[in-house]
Amino acid sequence: MRHIFTIILLFSTISFAKDSVAMEVFHTYCWGCHHQTAEAFGPSFKEIANKRKKDEIVAQILSPKEMYKKLGYQRNSMPSFNDLNATEIDAIVAYILSFKDKK
């Protein structure tokens, strides 16, 4: 029983750390243009999650000038975020995809 509790605690800690990273990235880089469920300057995370696959979201974050036409946008106003590390990118993409409608 003790081992099960330790495993649950470990996964909870990892999940909390990932959520903390995602929230830090969201508030630092995304919040000015994107909101979770409502359209702001850019589309909501809910809209993005329902339209895009993980690799498309990553590509848009890292290379928006190269991706905007491929994704069907008329113009690009999103800056690239090459200073984000792999952990930060994984965390924010997982956070975005958490808003996908459940079917």
Care to describe what's here?
- This protein is mostly helical and 103 residues long.
- It has a single domain, classed as Cytochrome Bc1 Complex, Chain D, domain 2 (Orthogonal Bundle), CATH 1.10.760.
- The protein has five helices and no strands.
- The protein has helices at 2-30, 45-51, 54-62, 64-67, 86-97.
- Helix 1 (2-30) crosses helix 5 and helix 3 (54-62) packs across helix 5.
- The termini are far apart.
- The relative contact order is 0.17.
CATH fold-level assignment: Cytochrome Bc1 Complex, Chain D, domain 2
Largest sheet: none
Query: Count of DSSP E strands?
Result: 0
**CATH homology superfamily:** Cytochrome c-like domain
Oligomer: single chain
SSE topology string: HHHHH
Classify the beta-strand content into a percent band: under 5%
Q: In DSSP terms, counting alpha (H) and pi (I) runs of 4 or more, how many helices?
A: 5
Task: Give the structural class.
Answer: mainly alpha
Output the CATH class name. Mainly Alpha
CATH architecture: Orthogonal Bundle
The shape is globular
Percentage of residues assigned to helices: 55-70%
Poorly predicted parts: 5-17
Write down the Rg.
16 Å
Mean pLDDT: 84
Report how far the terminal alpha carbons are from each other: 35 Å
- Domain tally: 1
